[in-house]
Give the backbone structure.
Amino acid sequence: RRQHPLPLLLLRHLRPQAHREPPQVYTSSQPLRVGYYETDNYTMPSPAMRRAVLETKQSLEAAGHTLVPFLPSNIPHALETLSTGGLFSDGGHTFLQNFKGDFVDPCLGDLVSILKLPQWLKGLLAFLVKPLLPRLSAFLSNMKSRCTAKP
């Protein structure tokens, strides 16, 4: 089996000027140093995900590569602020437009209900639940609109 099919696939399908790495990086037989992590200590991986990471790690080590465990930094900020703030920067208006007059999957029901709340209520709920549920509070705070114009 080939150890690096993805970079070769990207090299083949990307325009030459879009890829700045010299091709010898990917065709080299020198061992690589690869960072990996099993969990970010914010969300726990499923057993299947953890097993997939460990099997890949073992395969790469068997091929002579060096694997270095690391822990991603500031995951709460990335998930609670950057991801949620980016996905719902308009307060969820664009997201909710996709469900107008249509069936909402029960798995998304709570999210849709929260996004329909007025901004002031999201802020109040975030303040009230912060001592008990700090993660939920952070998500609620970052679901508020950052737009200057009304959608």
Remarks:
- The chain has three domains: 1-29, 31-72, 75-142.
- The helical segments are 5-13, 24-27, 47-62, 75-87, 93-97, 109-116, 119-129, 134-142.
- The chain has a mean pLDDT of 84.
